Amino acid sequence: MADKPEDPCDNKQVPEIRQIPTLCLRKIITILFAWDWDKDGYAGYDDIMNTADRFIHVGDMNEKSADNVIEFFRDLTKRTSYNPVVEIVNVTSLSEQIEGLWRAKSNPAALKSLGQIYIHMFQIIDVNAKGFLTFDEYLVFWNAFDLDKRFARMQFDFIDTNQDGKISEEEFVKAHEDYLVNTNDDTLNRFYGPLINY
Ligand SMILES: [Ca+2]
Ligand SMILES: [Ca+2]
């Protein structure tokens, strides 16, 4: 069977991670690093619950709101009807998490489920259920993930596509989806702060 030389570019022979375009890889790593509080290389259960605590603390939430936050983040780690995140959460290496997010990016059902997560996250931050976030409220997201404060305003203005000075639920969720799927090198979307170099 020597009639066909091995193709070094055969996708099946190349680890999936090497096929990910640099920009996408940087964005995915930026997300995962924002969640990986204990810096052991991946975002696990403890990291997710730590994120919940940070939302509660930064948002100065009352007991009822805090309970909602805990429940929401705990659910992210459970296998519910269809929770694509559970596949990403329940692996224990950075490369598996990167591949999980990479696959979710090109899977409409997974993208939709991820969108639901960000709808819920929006509602957590929008504690008074006004349907929009002011800049100060948006900072709860930004500061909960301890992102570089110098970029908060820029990202707020990026998300606020209709430029009314407020972020609607739709704008927030669309910005997150754009962050995952936009492969344009010029994109200004910094949903999880400045992109990490690696
Ligand atoms: Ca971790
Ligand atoms: Ca707006």
Write a brief structural summary.
InterPro entries: EF-hand-dom_pair (IPR011992), EF_Hand_1_Ca_BS (IPR018247), EF_hand_dom (IPR002048). By secondary structure, the chain is an all-alpha fold.
Explained architecture:
The chain has 198 residues and is mostly helical. The protein has one domain: EF-hand (Recoverin, domain 1). It is 55% helix and 2% strand. The chain has nine helices and two strands; from the N terminus they run H-H-H-H-H-H-E-H-H-E-H. It has a two-stranded antiparallel sheet. Helix 1 packs across helix 5 (94-105) and helix 6 (108-125) packs across helix 9. The longest helix is centred in the middle third of the chain and has 18 residues, at 108-125. It is globular and about 50 Å long. The model is unreliable at 7-11 (pLDDT under 50). The site of one calcium ion (CA) has 7 residues, from loops.
Topology:
Blueprint: H1 22-35, H2 45-58, H3 63-76, H4 84-89, H5 94-105, H6 108-125, E1 132-133, H7 135-144, H8 152-159, E2 167-168, H9 169-181
Antiparallel strand pairs: 1-2
The structure holds calcium ion (2 copies).
One calcium ion binds next to loops.
